[in-house]
Amino acid sequence: MPAHQLAPDIPANAVLSAEQSHLAQSRAALQAMREHAQSLSADAAGDWVSQQVLQSLLDQRVAALADHPDTPLFFGRLDREGGDDLPGTIYVGRRHVHDGNSRALVIDWRAPVSRAFYQASPTEPLGVVRRRRFGYHGGALTAFEDEHLDQGAELGPSKILTEEIERPRTGPMRDIVATIQPDQDEIVRSGLGHTVCVQGAPGTGKTAVGLHRAAYLLFTHRDRLARSGVMIVGPNRAFLSYISSVLPALGEVKVDQTTVADLLGASDHPEDPRVAALKGDARMAEVLERALWLHIAKPEEGLVYTRGAHRFRVADHEVREIVASLRGTTRYGPGRVAMAQRLAHQVLVRMEQRGDSPDDRVQDAVARSKPVKALVDAVWPKLTPAQVLFRLLSDSEFLARACHKSAVTAEEQAALLWAKPYRGWKSARWSAADAALLDELADLIERTPSLGHLVVDEAQDLSEMQLRALGRRCRNGSATVLGDLAQGTTPWSTTSWEAVLTHLGQDSGSVTELTLGFRVPREVLDYAARLLPSVAPGLAPPRSLRPGTGSLSVRQDAPLADTVRDLLTRDGSIGLIVPDARVGEISAELSGLPHAVLTPDSTGEEQRLLVVPATLAKGLEYDHVVVVEPADIVAAELRGLARLYVVLTRAVSSLTVLHAKPLPAQLG
Ligand SMILES: Nc1ncnc2c1ncn2[C@@H]1O[C@H](COP(=O)(O)OP(=O)(O)OP(=O)(O)O)[C@@H](O)[C@H]1O
């Protein structure tokens, strides 16, 4: 008998009914935990503010203990050899549940003991004798599947895993907590101190793994991360909305999910992609630093401070010494404060020499006095990032001085200058690339606070300057960097993860790879992979877990509406991925069919049929995908072939390619 055995799906089965009663017992215990949490009062807290804080914590606790009838409370069971002080049998689920005697009925999937559920194998059983996976229908436990790990025999494919992967996709992304694979689990459970970069072909679960790692870290380092924070950074709001339910479903509601654009300020003034690429180059960091510090003037005059009938002087050469000693040892903003304090200190020394005994308050008053302020403003002027960047992009002589000794050539400097300068920094319109430059300047002026952990998705698309901006936000923490070199569609897309880690300031991070695809059927993936030698020559062709025979259809001159009508008779979502320029026209063509158009800010989730502009499809997936006119998708952008690779790899069940023009030669 094979070690892997699927138990018959019979409700009367004694094993099944025993497991069902464990589920009922666990649900009742969860309800008791919730009722207990609801009965706790915040009145015990001393003052009103503490009461509000405690009440909000209690409310969060009650919300976290909610029982969602459709979400399995546990999905696995381990029967262990024992020999330690942990229970011999444990149930693995989304959260801990215990009974009135503190006996664990369900153990959180993130607890160390649950690791064996994901990692144990016949060759390395990790003390597990039997692993049981549960199948659910709605909220009801309807099946189980056993793997005997103590018999040395190889395991067959898991039917429950296969069914989970094959389940039609509807609505937002769901968690994969019941079926995380061993290589994914390694990444999910890597330590908080470690930055991990994951390269993976489309559908290998990078996004899922990143989100589960965030949930794992929050569970394992709750207090530390509650203080410092965790943030998810994705490519656009439609993508964020698609992934937004995963962390709350895992009980994690306090994670910021944002886009680079929103994080750096919504600057989206259009710009020549070549200029944007230049502004995204890390060489700009040095130029900006120089530009900022060029604003410090050489002190030509000393300070005269009058108190009563007395005048206290600080000589010009002393002022120069103060400035020289501060330069390069502080950020620009605190440097101004420090200069004022040092000047005040010199005045105090003079006062003491005269026989006064001034205290700290006098020093603060001198530092805030008019003559000190005037001198600091003249020598070390107060600046905003926008003022500095405005000057840099509009004043060729200043730009040349800032680029002195940098590797930015004269030709590049000419490209950086605005063709039509704005009247002033307040009226300047900033591009997305400018936003990263402004952020760099902001950090040179005042330190950007660091979070505890950052998850960066679709990281291959970020410029070096954007990576630096994100790196600042995890400089005292760590990151999970996710992406695929073959899906880089920006003019500055990276070709090396090591370089990405360097610009992020996380050189010691490790690069790992996920190689098995869970989304795209093999037939479709093989078709899309024909583009790989052109878009990312170094990458091995992706592999798919799902054969998907008959999932690909390429049709010339076929009517779009007929294709769509045909797909509407099947289960699951339909993504009609079209060249951006044709969204309106194609939506009009479908006027008889209920559909929505995906925009950067909406998922159009309420409709099964969605028209998706090609540039928004990244990271998303649909059961059935129709890609309209590949030649136009390729022609629309500098890295159009990579865009085509992205859109061809969005399908879970079927891909239909419709074309009137010849297909790109690489697909032939
Ligand atoms: N272990 C797993 N069990 C079940 N489903 C999985 C597993 N891993 C990934 N998936 C599913 O595969 C699909 C693709 O996952 P995901 O979007 O995370 O991949 P990705 O590598 O980020 O893809 P892309 O590069 O295209 O953005 C999702 O539906 C996800 O839920």
Automatic annotation (TrEMBL):
The keyword ATP-binding applies. SUPFAM superfamilies: P-loop containing nucleoside triphosphate hydrolases. Residues 179-521 form the UvrD-like helicase ATP-binding domain. Keywords: ATP-binding, Helicase, Hydrolase, Nucleotide-binding. ATP binds at G200, A201, P202, G203, T204, G205, K206, T207. It comes from the Bacteria. This is AAA family ATPase. It comes from Nonomuraea longicatena.
